[in-house]
Write a structure and sequence with these properties.
Distance between the termini: 11 Å
CATH architecture: Orthogonal Bundle
CATH topology: Arc Repressor Mutant, subunit A
Order of helices and strands: HHHH
Structural class: mainly alpha
Number of helices: 4
Largest sheet: none
Radius of gyration: 12 Å
């Protein structure tokens, strides 16, 4: 289940949310700030600017972190599916 297939948490199945939560826990162990950004954007529904402000980082940094985090999580979810 690619992260891009689930745009908001309300549309995800419980199986998809569980897989995402497991991947996000692994990601948080590696990079807690980027994992927190994902939680703010994906689960809390904050915009990039709002999440950046909450984390005390610039919008540009949040954008870079978001791109990296999505790629990491998509890869982790794809590996689990195999």
């Amino acid at each position: 289940m690619p992260l891009s297939d689930v745009e908001i948490a309300a549309e995800a199945t419980s199986e998809q949310l569980l897989a995402l939560d497991e991947a996000l826990e692994r990601f948080a162990a590696v990079d807690p700030t980027k994992a927190e950004l994902v939680k703010l954007r994906y689960f809390a529904g904050l915009s990039e600017v709002q999440a950046a402000t909450a984390l005390g980082i610039s919008r540009a940094t949040a954008s870079r972190y978001w791109i990296y985090a999505r790629a990491w999580l998509i890869n982790a979810l794809d590996e689990k599916a195999d």
